[in-house]
Amino acid sequence: MYAAFRSIGAYVPTKVLTNEELSKMVDTTDEWITKRTGIKERRIAAVNETTSDMAVKAAEKAIERSGIKKEDIDMIVVATISPDYFNMPSTATVVAHKMGLDKVTAFDISAACTGFIYVLSIAKAFIESGMKKNVLIIGAEKMSAITDYTDRGTCILFGDGAGAAVICATEDKSEAITDLHTAADGSLGDFLMTPDGGTGNPHQAELKAEASFIQMKGNETFKIAVRTLTNDVVEILADNNTKASDIKHFIPHQANYRIIKAVGDALKLEKEQVVLTVHKYGNTSGASIPMAMNDLYEEGKLEKGDLMLLDAFGGGLTWGSALLPFAGK
Ligand code: UT7
Q1: What is the C-alpha separation between 179 and 124, in angstroms, rounded?
Q2: In a 3-state reduction of DSSP, which class is residue 314?
Q3: Residue 139 neighbours by CB distance under 10 Å
């Protein structure tokens, strides 16, 4: 049995936060943000809109496009670092309940911006082992809830949104997810973190509200991201005897245009091969790859059989890549 990437869906909140608006909130400019990140604007969820609300909307679209019935979903895995509740219940169980799927296996994983690659690997493993048949994977983030809007080093980057995909069992090898890499280096955990909210910090009571916001060593993370991702994508292509020119769509995590360009240039990819949404959504962490893929799909540019290369890098530190054909109905 193989695992096929059957469908994609996404949800994008309506409220837009532009660089101009941010430049009135912190000491920054549209010019600086555009030049250093490629971001022009990002979406912000409504105050009462939760991560699970966004996840459900993305999931409903993905299921509608999958050719399977909602009731045939047997597992839901959500990648998020901005869950509805920090400890329990998991966002996946909230999503399952909102969708009327109370008997499925449901859990969250925490791999920050690499979350979607991690949930994809979990779906593949459960399907290939024969344990599950139709797995709903979701990357959903309300990053605005954990972003410090007085810190110009981070608040210019992040945005909200959700993306979802249905991964199904298939006997057709041509539909199979080809390969996946997932990795982590916990020694660099303090490059990107939210220090509050866990047993790792013994001084909970003394912590200020800012401790639950993202703290990032931006420039250090940037350099490692470029080096690590470049090596990783070269490796996954070589391992699978695939040339960069065989890739129809390179769909990277949308953290910074300069990281995407550096990796794309290292592979000598043409502009048409590289999917970019960072200018309009910013960095939506675990949601960014499926949101970008959904845009491609809705523009009519993602067709059955198209070979996709995904890559991501984020807190943990974690990173990963995936090589797979789109197996849409
Ligand atoms: O998705 C998860 C993984 N995350 C990432 O991959 C993020 C990786 N990092 C980045 O994208 C970039 O490092 C940033 C966009 C966060 C920063 O860009 P940079 O080119 O690495 O800038 P920098 O941190 O080295 O800062 C350069 C200068 C500094 O001023 P001085 O010391 O040279 O006077 C900063 O204080 O830019 C200043 N600066 C800003 N200026 C205007 C930092 N943020 C801003 C800002 N507006 N928003």
Answers
A1: 10
A2: strand
A3: 35
Report residue 179 CA to chain centroid gap.
18
Q: Which amino acid is at 61?
A: K
Distance CA 168, CA 260 (A): 29
Q: Which amino acid is at 186?
A: G
Between CA 92 and CA 210 the distance in angstroms is 27
296 token code pair? 């491609």
Q: pLDDT tens-digit profile of 275-291?
A: 999 999 999 999 999 99
Instruction: Quote the CA–CA distance of 159 and 105 in Å, as a whole number.
Output: 29
248 CB contacts (<8 Å, ≥6 apart)?
273, 306, 307, 308
Core vs surface per residue 189-222: b (16+ CB within 10 A) or e: eebbbbbbeeeeeeeeeeeeeebebbbbeeeebb
Could you tell which of 20, 219, 229, 319 is best to mutate to test the pocket of ligand 1, judged by most ligand atoms within 8 Å of the CB?
219
Ligand 1 atom at shortest distance from the alpha carbon of 222: 8
E strands, the chain, in order: 2-11, 15-18, 41-44, 75-79, 105-109, 134-142, 160-170, 179-184, 192-193, 215-216, 249-252, 307-314, 318-325
Q: How many other CB atoms are there within 10 angstroms of residue 152's CB atom?
A: 17
Note the pLDDT tens digit of each residue in 108-149.
999 999 999 999 999 999 999 999 999 999 999 999 999 999
CA angle 297–301–306, rounded 5-degree value: 90
- Check pLDDT > 80 for residue 27: yes
Would you state the structure tokens that stand for residue 36, as one six-digit string? 């250093």
More confident residue, 148 or 329: 148
What predicted TM-score, i.e. pTM, was given to this entire model? 0.97
Cα of 154 from ligand 1 centre, angstroms: 8
User: What is the residue with the minimal CA distance to atom 3 of ligand 1?
Assistant: 314
Hey, CA dihedral for 28, 287, 316, 314, is it positive or negative? negative
DSSP 8-state class, residue 305: T
